[in-house]
Amino acid sequence: MAATVNEILENSSVLADGFVQLNRQESVPEVLPNHGAQESQVLFSEEEVRDTLEKSASTGRFWLDWGKLRSILSYRLKQVLSEYPEAAMTSEQQTSSLGETFQELVERLDNALHSFDEGPPFTLQRLCEILLSARSIYPKISKLSLALEKNLLVTSTLTISTEPYPLPTEQNSNGTHEESGLAQPQPQPEPAPVENGVEPPVGDRDEIMADVQEAEVGGDNVTMDMETIEETVKSSEANPTPTVEHKSS
């Protein structure tokens, strides 16, 4: 029996709807399970990012779960790099200026950040300082990338702070800032980097961080690399400062 006109139109409509649905399913991009794809879906407010970085920049400590803090650092890292004019150049111009494409530069630094599984690098304080004021410290992206790389090419890490989280600061009418709430406890010594579960003496950390900053200032003529700084950390662990006992007369 020949199909009626209504049956033909109905079947055509069903086939058309199925074809459209199939195209929609095929057009959805597949999201690969890597840190870049996962963190691209995570959004942070500017206030949260700045407050987190400022606390670590001023204290050298961190209070957030390392996974979240790493996501914030990665988010800010990409944001800062994208503010430089090289980000808008063509791939050929980027390669000529940077020796690699902008995307390759971002991925290289971001991968270095994600190489830390247990906690942030012991250079976290300096890293946060750079990410907060990158444009004012490093007018050129080449200098910025070098400084970031030096602070990420370490192996010693920090442990999460057990001290109370600092209260947010409030701006007064005269433009100064003060912490809200009750008086805060006296500042404690800065956390020392952890290498294989062993913490070197606190005093060595200030010297090491000074070496890191000195290496940044040197730019292309730097003779000290991060391996030398790492050796300082390890030697301080192996040879702790002996204590002197005073005998009573």
From TrEMBL:
Residues 162-249 are annotated as: Disordered. InterPro entries: PPP4R2. One of its GO terms (cellular component) is protein phosphatase 4 complex. It comes from the Eukaryota. Pfam families: PPP4R2. Belongs to the PPP4R2 family. This is Serine/threonine-protein phosphatase 4 regulatory subunit 2. It comes from Castilleja foliolosa. The lineage of its organism: Eukaryota, Viridiplantae, Streptophyta, Embryophyta, Tracheophyta.
